[in-house]
């Protein structure tokens, strides 16, 4: 028993996820990027949609809420800090709250930066982290609304989770993230291995998701802003890691 996760493509480069509590049959869509692929995944699995867990207000994560809620009567949970920007929320959650999906409990973790109210959902018992646009494979979300300090602090909270955690992020950006990461951290063997693995997976038409958090801790520059070699790359030796994080973020934006 526990949580089963179905992974599928949505929109142009979004991932869609169904999280299914095996004991009770309750099933949540993690975000609502596009109704068609979510409906197709439900039909393929023979599951009914009971819940929708929203991470942030961007259209490519909430667009299908209305259609899915009308079709399935699903209960919609989302960040209280963005309640005014997301239509159809039934339950508002804050940092540290826990939400139930049958016998499964997911912790809500605030990860401000991509948007100010962005949250992720963490299944500690099963080792699943639904990180949306806060943390990507070898990358992190563009900082549209937040500031480097709080975004770095949020990512450090995710970095502190167990190495064997499986991470399910919002988009298939791994190859582009790998190219940038190698440009600033070219001697990182763990990064080189991840980049090669991602290249092979994509050539086979396979997803690079989920990925193990422990592997990302060693390879993702956005999780390594306190590494001396990255500070040195930007000429910021001895500087607050938040400043190094800001430099990495700007570097990726301009890459």
How does this model look, in words?
Zn(2+) 2 binds at residues 60-61, 133, 171. The chain has nine helices and 14 strands. The protein is globular, with a radius of gyration of 18 Å. With 255 residues, it is of the alpha/beta class. The protein has one domain (3-254): Metallo-beta-lactamase, Chain A (4-Layer Sandwich). The protein has helices at residues 35-45, 59-62, 65-72, 148-159, 174-184, 189-203, 213-219, 228-233, 241-254; strands spanning 3-10, 14-21, 27-30, 51-53, 75-79, 91-93, 98-101, 104-110, 119-123, 128-132, 135-136, 139-140, 166-169, 211-212. The strands form three sheets. Strands 1-2-3-4-5-6 form a six-stranded mixed sheet, with helices on one face. A six-stranded mixed sheet has the order 7-8-9-10-13-14. It has a two-stranded antiparallel sheet with strand order 11-12.
Task: Round the Cα radius of gyration to an integer and report it.
Answer: 18 Å
Structurally, the number of domains stands at 1
Helix content: 25-40%
CATH topology: Metallo-beta-lactamase, Chain A
User: What is the overall silhouette?
Assistant: globular
Spatial order of the strands in the main sheet? 1-2-3-4-5-6
CATH architecture: 4-Layer Sandwich
């Amino acid at each position: 028993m526990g949580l089963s996760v179905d992974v599928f493509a949505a929109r142009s480069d979004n991932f869609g996820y169904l999280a299914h509590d095996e004991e009770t049959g309750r099933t949540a869509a993690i975000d609502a990027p596009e109704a068609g692929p979510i409906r197709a995944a439900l039909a393929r699995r023979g599951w009914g949609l009971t819940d929708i867990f929203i991470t942030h207000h961007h259209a490519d994560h909430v667009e299908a809420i209305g259609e899915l809620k009308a079709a399935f009567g699903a209960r919609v949970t989302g960040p209280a800090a963005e309640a005014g920007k997301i239509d159809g929320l039934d339950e508002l959650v804050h940092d540290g709250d826990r939400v139930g999906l049958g016998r499964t409990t997911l912790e809500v973790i605030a990860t401000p930066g991509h948007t100010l109210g962005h949250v992720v959902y963490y299944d500690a018992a099963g080792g699943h982290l639904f990180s949306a646009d806060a943390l990507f494979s070898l990358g992190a979300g563009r900082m549209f609304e937040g500031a480097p300090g709080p975004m770095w602090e949020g990512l450090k909270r995710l970095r502190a989770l167990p190495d064997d955690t499986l991470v399910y992020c919002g988009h298939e950006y791994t190859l582009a993230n790998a190219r940038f990461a190698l440009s600033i951290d070219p001697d990182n063997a763990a990064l080189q291995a991840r980049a090669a693995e991602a290249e092979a997976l994509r050539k086979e038409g396979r997803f690079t998701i989920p990925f193990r958090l422990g592997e990302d801790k060693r390879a993702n520059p956005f999780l390594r802003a306190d590494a001396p070699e990255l500070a040195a790359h930007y000429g910021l030796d001895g500087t607050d890691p938040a400043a190094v994080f800001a430099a990495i973020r700007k570097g990726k934006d301009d890459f």
